[in-house]
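Title: Request for sanity check on UDP-glucose 6-dehydrogenase prediction

Description:
We are preparing a figure and want to confirm that the structure record we downloaded matches what your pipeline produces today. Could someone re-run it with the sequence below and paste the raw C-alpha cells into this thread? We only need the C-alpha cell string, no images.
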Amino acid sequence: MKIAMIGTGYVGLVSGVCFSDFGHEVVCVDKDSRKIEMLERGEVPIYEPGLETLLAKNVDAGRLSFTGDIAVAIDGADAVFIAVGTPTRRGDGHADLTYVMAAAEEIAKAADHYIVVVTKSTVPVGTNAKVRDTMAAANPDLEFDVASNPEFLREGAAIDDFMKPDRVVVGVESERAGRVMEEIYRPLYLRDFPIVVTDLESAEMIKYAANAFLATKITFINEIAALCEKVGADVKQVSKGMGLDGRIGKTFLHAGPGYGGSCFPKDTKALARIGQDHAMPMQITEAVIKINDEVKRRMVDKLLDLSDGSFNNRKIAVLGVTFKPNTDDMRDAPSLTIIPAMVGGGAKVSVVDPQGRREGEALLPGVTWESDPYVAAKDADLLVILTEWNEFRALDLKQIANGMNTPRLGDLRNIYSAEDAREAGFEAYSAIGRPGYP
Ligand code: NAD
C-alpha cells in the first residue's frame, strides 16, 4: 500500500513510521517546514523512545520519506491519513476542527484518483461526514471514501502501542474502503490483534468514550485518595485491593496530581460539549473535569502547608514537569498549574526534567533549569516530585536531605514513603492519599 500521512506530530509521525515498518510505502507531510527539514536530516522533532532508530531503518529501506507538499505525498496513494491536531477551541470547549477541515480541502484539491481519506485525529461524532461533504464540495469529480481510525497510542510507549494494540478501530461506510483499511492493517490481522469494524459515528464515539472513561478512573482514585487522607487509609493499598478485582483492573488507579497531557483534558471537554449540544449532558464527564481542576488546586495547598503557609522567598526544587515520564509533551501538564502558583507566591523554583526543558522554558517563566536533582535541591526548603521519571525513583534521599536548608518532601507521585523520608532525615513528608508527617 502507498500511504500519505498528514501531520508529523506524536500520532502522525509514529503512525507513519510504524506503517512503513509494516512494509508500506509512506510519505509524511507537515506544513511546519522546520519539522520536515529536521526529519529529512534524520532528526526526530519530538521525544519518543525508539522512534529515531525505527525511522532511520525505514528511511534507509526506502519506504519512508517526508515532504511539505500534500500533492507530492498523495500522488498514487491508496490512503491518506489525517493526523493533525484537534485542540480545544478557545472559549467554548469544542474540538477545534480547523486543521482537519483544512487538510481535507487540501487533499480534495490535490487528489486525482480514488483514495481513502482516513481520520486518525480525535474528532467529534459527525466529523467524518463533514470531511466527506467538504471534500465533495472542493472537488466534485473526485472518487473517494472516508474512514475513521482513531488512535489509542500512549506517548512514551507509542511504538509498542501501535505495533501491539489492544485493538484497532476502523469506521467505514463502503466495502471498497474496508478492503483498503484491511490491507493497511494486514500485519495486525495476521497476528490476531482485534480489529473492530464499525460505522463512522461509532468509531468516532469509541475514542471519546474510552478517553473519558480512563480520565474518570484516574479522577475516581484521586477523589478516594483525598478521602484516604482524612480517614487515615493508604490509597496505594486501596488501589491494589481494588485493582486486583478483574472487573476493575489495576491500570489507571494511581493517585497523583491530576490528569494532564494532550488528550484527556481536551477530549473530556469536547465530550461534555457534544453532550450539551445534544441536550444529553455528560454529567459524569462534567464532574470529572471539575474534580480534576480541584485536584490540581489541592496540590498547591498541600505544598503550601509544607512551606508553613507561604511560598515567599522559599527555595523549591521540582523534579519533573512533563505530564508523564518518557515524553517531552508539556500540554496541560499539572506542573503548569502548580509551578506558576509557587513562583507567583514568591518562591525561587529550580526545575529538573530529563526531556521537558525545550518545551518547558517558554511555558514556565521565572524558574531555573538544572540537570541534576542533587544540585537543584541544594539549600532548598522543599523538594517536590511532580513526574515519576525513572531517574527520580531511586534517589539517594539521605544525600538530598543533607544538602537541603529545611529537608521537606512533597511526593505527588507516591514513589517514596513516610518511612523512606523519615529514615533519610526529612523533617516533613507529604504524599497523595497516604500518611505523611509531621
Ligand atoms: P501534534 O500537535 O503533535 O501534531 C500535529 C501536526 O499536524 C503538527 O506537526 C502540525 O504542524 C501538523 N499539521 C496541522 N495542519 C496540517 C496540514 N494542513 N498539513 C500538514 N500538516 C499539518 O498533535 P498529536 O499529539 O500528534 O495529535 C494529533 C491528533 O491525534 C489529535 O486529534 C489528538 O487528539 C489525537 N491523538 C493524540 C494522541 C497523543 O498521545 N498525542 C493519542 C491519540 C490520539
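Thanks, this matches our download. The chain has 18 helices and 14 strands.
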